[in-house]
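Notes from the pairing session

We agreed to fold both candidates in a single pass and log them together. This is the raw record for the first candidate, unedited. Please don't reformat it; downstream parsing expects exactly this layout.

Candidate A
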Amino acid sequence: MKIVQAWSMHVRLLSTLVGTAVIAFAMPVNAQEDPITYNSHVGKIINDNCVVCHREGGIGPMQFTNYEQVRPWAPLIQMRVANKEMPPYAYDHGVGLQDLEGDWRLEQEEIDTIVAWVDQGAPLGDADITLETPNFPDPDDWTFSEQFGQPSLIVASTPMDIPASGNDLWHSPFNATNLPTDRCIKAMQVKPRGDARAVVHHANTYAEAPIGNGEFEERGQLNEYAMGKWGEIIPDGVCRTLEAESRIRWTIHMFPGGVGATAEGEMIKDNVVELGIWFHPEGYEKEAQYKQDLKAYQMREGYENGTLIIPPNGYAMTQGFHSFDHPVRIDSFQPHGHLRMNAASFEIFYPETGRTEQISQISNWSATWHHSHIYNQDVAPLVPAGAVLVIKQWYDNTASNPNNPDPDQWVVGGSRTGDEMSHAWIAVTHLDDEGFEKLVAERKAKEARSMAGSR
């Protein structure tokens, strides 16, 4: 099931305008000979990819657990699936790297099947066929509980009431970890508790290590959460370290009333955000040759006089360039913006050859679904020293942007929800020359074996 982890996130509500024209896709070759039915074809696709959110107690606005529930929504399902708006995972098909961890996107064959089914009248099919509804975890459980069990460490922020309306709020509590030894992190998830999902715009955590006399020193970013994000998985063989007796510093940004279609529109009492951390076994740091970190890489090209400015009913674009004096591996890419941002891309420029490689593109980005695009370790970009990361983001401050609350406003760079931001969170494994050459050689050998096996 591709999106079983999605249960803990917010859904972008589906439009109720079912009369909109639907993009036409080619019908499967056997569609005329073998009619596409719910019980034989479509039900399993919906169960595996949609019911995780569209069920009783789920975050979807309607339930899709059986044919009677699905059938009235068939035209809208067709439109959203054909436009690749559902499941809500904005990452362009056919551009750059496509092998991602936790990828929710449907295969084109699945999209074509749903489109053909609706075109044929959305029939039930053989009534004697019984489809089993998947047994999904509780929506308030942890994303990785099925994969890794319960977190090794759970840290909860201090409660804070969020009013039903008003200006942006920020909360910066501290939490002790009481961790007896340094540990390497396997995975992390930040999870707003209950109704807090609608009002927590982002919740970043930083590790601070003790330096004596009750003083602490920041060791860098630990984790980043933004609305809709399901978590971070650290690749095997590297260590993102949490030091003994560290404390966690939060920066939590909340928007009273909620953002866009996820809004609760009412007061949220005792708002709490939790950080779950899964550790590798003790001693793993001896096996992990390299360190990994997560940082916000800024984009300043496109700023006017040092400030991001988007005119009323206008557009803007920013870009940033970053390089390293040592080889690295890029493990994940997550663009960040607010309500006017609508697209992002990530490229690598190689000065020695003049070649630019497209890595990732997101052409229909939404602030209600932030995704950390985690590259499969076999394809994660291996970047030699001196190569340049090229990151770009685009902004649409017109009425054609469905997320735009007011196209007549000047929009500037800032931390408020109504402002804009221009950076991307990138997880980087820092290599040395020997490690870089080893990974390159391993990939070439694996590719050679694959090609030999396909002959």
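Candidate B (folded immediately after A)
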Amino acid sequence: MPNDERPAFSRRSLLLGAAALGAGSTLAKGATQESPDFSTVDPYLTTQEKFRDVSRGKPLPHSLPPEKKVEAGLTRETWKLEVVSDPEHKADVRNPMTRENGKALDWEGLMRLAEKCSVSFLKIMTCNNIGRPLGMGLWEGVPLREVVWMADPRENLRRVFYYGFHNNDPKQMFRSSLPVGRILEDPPGLPPVILCFRLNGQFLAPERGGPVRILVPEAYGFKSVKWLTHVVLTNLHGANDTYADENNDVDSPLKTFARVLSVPKEAKADQPIPVLGLAQVGISGLSKVQVWACRADEAWPAEDKYFTGAPWKDAEILPPPATWGGGFPDGKLPGTPLGFDPETGKPKRWPLPLAKAHWSARLPGLPEGKYLLRCRSIDANGIAQPLPRPFPKSGRALIEQTEFVVKG
């Protein structure tokens, strides 16, 4: 692009950006001593009824009348899970678990397993085609590998795919898959893939995929199939996810990104401006959140599309919440979720990977005008959002901008 066609990148733009966030800290003094209260803005855990819903199906399985749910096996009393070999790409499975042979896993059998090996962990749920989380929960279930081993696989098993109830219409089947190695062995620091039956201490509601769904800790929501009915052991070497047909990257794990939750739409001139936000802590962790405000009419050079040269300033990543929310009595988590210290009941590290963290900043007073506020995350490897994976079909993580006005 010729120089005279580039957007203006004025010295005034840089100076204004620096002034907007001040020469010192962007934070309110004492923010670490008295953290903002997020209980009304964004409670840490999302109650089941407040999760955003991106379910598939016509009609939606959770909307079926009670008698149809019983017929479809969508109640705890009638639920069954079949674990079988793929007839087209056969794995050597010596003990297939089917309704026909009477070995399908039922709710009572799942609860017996839960008494021995149930686990719980915090996880944020995000659709890879939506740039904001759907909800944050404490999920509980039985590791999927426990049930895979019950089917007694011997060899020719390279992948596992699974699907849920789809109204007896093959065209509505929604399927996801994982390498068998991910199911049988957990990478360092990752919880197991589970047959999930509780969210925030309550049995899964139909809207959340109950009675049982898959829950893949490090993955986007499409991997955590709802209304689970079938697990298929296959010798396929590659993914056969339904989402792959829609040009999605079906193997990319959660990305790290920051979002603004609250900034005044109209602020007073020369008065500090409070900002609250959240960060999704992806597979690469989170080390910082940064903010930057500038005049809305100021251009930025097209070649710096990720604003790497902007005068970003650090925000404050807040500590674990004193009250977790989610409907728990007194906001306290039950038991010892994975990643928590059994003696103190607190996370062993913070921010907790695959979960979320809140952050706050305070912009110093600004002169009158229209402004844009941007925020970004820096992951534990020192890489700024939206890198290292900026491609939208592997998860939406672009730097968003929020408009606000300063008036006298």
